[in-house]
Amino acid sequence: MPAKRVLISIDERLLDRIDHAAARSGLTRSGLIASLASQSVEPRQGPGADADVRAALAGIDELAAEATS
User: Fold this and answer.
1) What's CA 13's distance to the chain center, in Å?
2) Which pTM value belongs to this model?
């Protein structure tokens, strides 16, 4: 499905945090926001449905990113 452009308003400090998180994740700002929005509106299934598991996986991703940089 083709992407659509949208206009949203975000606090400047939050936008800075989003940009830093996107850079750490290797995503664009739009990619990160789309990913987070998708996670928010789609039902979670499997081990990633648990917040503790998601946090652990995010920690592993962060360690892997640090190890490769």
Assistant:
1) 17
2) 0.58
